[in-house]
Fold this protein.
Amino acid sequence: MVPRRLSSFVALTCALAICGAAQADTVIGPLAAGTPVRAWGGIALLSIREAGGYRLATQQGTEAPHALPGIAPSAHPFDADIGPGPTGAAVIVFSRCPHGTDCRLMRTTPAGGTEAPITGSVGANGFEYAPAAWGTRLAFARRFSNGSTHVYVRPLDAGTRVRSVRMPDVPRPACLFSEGCY
């Protein structure tokens, strides 16, 4: 019995020591407004509020976030994601909404410089948002003028001749009560 209790005590003490040794969060700097944050490969992607709107920004390590050059500001925080692109290097995809809800998908790199439209992702009678890139694939949501929304997938580097593939809708749970059903 004594060895079992002793080994349990040692295991618990080691676990507490490891947890206690973990460092507290490090504040990089204050943000003027709330923003979604996405991260991949040690790079955090977020929006920072500056005069003229929000700027798409990256942050690494303990550096302060810095706005990406060449990326125009937005009236709202960016709807953006970062992930590995076709070559394995980081790629940033985001929604550009010049008229509020008339959004189109764009891409850039962590160095910024240019924002390029993602060809072939534009659909008729709707707008695209919530992009996510991983490898050679791009996933995004498309909201139609009738209010329906569907998820699509397409090759990130494909041209306009390649169609986006609509994913099957997610089944909703059966409604058991009249309140709170959707």
User: Anything to note?
Assistant: The first strand starts at residue 38 and ends at 40. The two ends are 57 Å apart (CA to CA). Residues 44 and 82 are 8 Å apart (CA to CA). Residues 2-21 form the longest helix (20 residues).
